[in-house]
Amino acid sequence: MNKFLMNSSVIVHDGVYELFSITNGQAKSFMKDKEVCSAIGYQETADVITEILNIGVKVSRNKVMMEKGDEALVFKLYNRINKLDKGKLTKDFLRNNYSFKIMRRIK
Fold it and tell me: DSSP alpha helices (H): ranges in the chain?
């Protein structure tokens, strides 16, 4: 089973997935696994996740290819961001407009 850290719950491959909300504490437990592959594309987002979970997060634009049994911790913003604002959001905005989710490919 692979584990990922993502800033969007994008599904790019056919399959059956589940998505559910978790607490910050549960997100921190998920990140204790040293084998979590970061797919966080913006430094501001990585910095805020680092602050919230007290765990270092690296910026990476890794392509996520989930297989059956794989899980992703998703830092999900409450609203879709305007294309022109991507990479320009303030840390304060990010801190106040997110939830953590687990996305799991089940089939």
Answer: 24-31, 43-53, 91-95
CA distance 99 to 71: 16
Cα-only R_g, the chain: 13
- pLDDT top residue among 36 and 93: 36
User: Which residue ranges make up each domain of the chain?
Assistant: 3-105
For 75, other C-beta atoms within 10 Å of its C-beta total 23
Adjacency order of strands within the sheet including 98-105: 17-22, 98-105, 71-77, 3-6, 36-39
pLDDT digits (tens, 9 = 90+) for 17-34: 999 999 999 999 999 877
CATH 3.30.2290.10 holds for 3-105: no
pTM of the predicted model as reported, rounded to 2 decimal places: 0.88
Q: How many other C-beta atoms can be found within 10 angstroms of the C-beta atom of residue 22?
A: 16
